[in-house]
Amino acid sequence: MEHLFSYGTLQSKEIQMQVFNKLLTGTPDQLTGYKLKDLKIEEEFGMTDYFVATASENSSDKIEGIVFKISSKDLAKADLFESNAYKRVQITLKSGLVAWIYIES
């Protein structure tokens, strides 16, 4: 099993059904030393506003989110869902769990 930290879209039940064909269960956690930054992504009907995690110079910055336990197959589905504006890396959360996260590429 893999851990995936979500701070945005993948927390949505509708998106989870679309991407994984099921609802995920997770627990709240934090990523310290990162902040959220606005990101514009071109989609089918034009530009859409999102946000992306980016490393911060301030170690007290943090991002609240949910850590999900998922299969490697589901992780591959998440990779397909996320835009190429993001890259997947492993990080250590405040809880001590090592998880995948999508950050600015």
TrEMBL record:
InterPro entries assigned to the protein according to its UniProt record, in alphabetical order: AIG2-like_dom, GGCT-like, GGCT-like_sf
Entry-linked Pfam families: GGACT
Residue span, Gamma-glutamylcyclotransferase AIG2-like domain: 4-103
Domain of life, per lineage: Bacteria
Name under which the protein is recorded: Gamma-glutamylcyclotransferase
Organism of derivation: Flavobacterium geliluteum
Taxonomy of the source species: Bacteria, Pseudomonadati, Bacteroidota, Flavobacteriia, Flavobacteriales
